[in-house]
Amino acid sequence: MTLCLHGTRITSGVAIGPVHIIRQHDFEITQYSIQEEFISEEVNRYKKALTHARNHLDSVLNNIPASTPAEIKAFIHSHLLMLNDEMLSTAPIEIILERQCNAEWALKIQRDSIIHIFDSMQDDYLRTRRDDIDHVVNTIMQNLLSGPVHHGVHHSQEQRFSGHIIVADDISPSELVLMQHQGIAAFVTQTGGPTSHTAIIARSLNIPAIAGIHNIHTLLHEAETIIVDGRFGIILTNIDDEALYHYHRLRREQQIQLKRYKEFPHLPAITDDGVEINICANIELPEEIPLIHEMGANGIGLYRTEYLFMNRASTPSEEEQFQAYANVLKQLNGKPLTIRTLDLGSDKQVDSGKQLSHAIINPALGLRAIRLCLNDLALFIPQLRAILRVSALGPVKMMIPMLSSINELQQVLRLIRSTQEALQKESIAYDPDMPIGGMIEVPAAAICAEMFAAKLDFLSIGTNDLIQYTLAIDRIDDEVNYLYDPLHPAVLKLIAQTIAAGQQADIPVTMCGEMAGDPRYTKLLLGLGLQEFSMHPNSHPPIKQIIPLCHTKKLSRQVKRLLKNTDHTEFTNQIEKLLC
What we know:
By secondary structure, this protein is α/β, with parallel strands linked by helices. Among the domains are: 1-21 and 164-261, Glucose Oxidase, domain 1 (3-Layer(bba) Sandwich); 449-529 and 538-580, Phosphoenolpyruvate-binding domains (TIM Barrel, Alpha-Beta Barrel).
């Protein structure tokens, strides 16, 4: 009898193959004292382990094919930058010297300190950056404990993983790149989430993947054939002939579909009744821009600026930010760039160890995003100046995250006006008509969307946070993430209310959350009236394939009937009919 295991959906592909289990090190670190005459030797041992870790990542970069997407190389570069950052290159050495302890214990202390900061963040995208810290720290730790062993992943393995489904506690981005070139069919991990770097790379490489299945090593066995269905985040074991036949046919259909997708990127996204849909991209690194052009995106609907502020000893200057934004705009060749202002959580250290705010019990309800910026103008004003300056160079929009009250918005607009006046006095160019928009990701903002629409040039729905705040759940908390439901009636009504407010005010409304890039919801969102989507570039082809098959007026009638339905069973049935 076929059995089904449920996890977190990472990519939507389907794979069939034998299991290969990678048992990663569960390090047991013991503290011991180092005699003073041997301290310098212990420091050198740490430095040597650090060098081996750098050499490993350099080797990965030097051996992956030139055709590897630029954004994947960028992730590996980011791990190299972490190794060179003082938080890992210098701080553990200082701990060794100060405490006269072994290098492993010093690295553990530093790792725990960094992870504590990341675990305190509300933003799930930023919080999952802790995975990158763990990947890098584990590489150093392996070298300290047993020499340069990298979870058994070496270039010399050639096709060891070919056709296999990898099962592991976790997989680092560099390991995944190697495995992909060795021909893996899919991977399943015990930890990780949809916003980790490994997940982003998996989507870029179209590798089927599922995360968040506890005790996965005890549930699956080496060499047994399983099915990974990324569409629904499930694994099938003990497969019967009927299931095997169905999924082999589905795999063939997907392969044919992938070939067709190549025809879609540069075609306009126009519905069956002639409505043109604007498809933009979400990015965080300039290295992702070639993929934007490759997929035919109409511009950047969300440029995350947080990475300019992270993994460094001081905040980026106005000039550094200006150059970074100008570089992205230049590469877009005239396409619009929407820059989201800083969206960091309350406990992130960004300058010389200075804590931006006191520790609080629930960062989700604390000082983050625009609240943080309004509380620390020394952080916010340089970014406003940089964005305004770059607006003189081309089509730029500014987007404010996590607005929850009109008072907040009025404070932001006053700051923007005063910053414009200061630039004007200094004879520095800017676009006085640069569009300013707000992110609707708090239920209070969605309920008051008409008030925000009256004062802004556009609205952007951030479904990731909107769903979490509406349903009072954390989608990367394994104990409650089963409650994360984009199709909850309350969520759909808030989305509908926001889109209607934009239509009434005659301003654009876009969606930049994960929901926008999920083809399962495209028809529903079109029926809700959404005409602007922003998503990861690799999500564009399937969305563009669906849009020409949709008639927005018919879908709108269906969705209106759906939202009026108060019977749960009937509501569910109507949703299923709409999504199929």
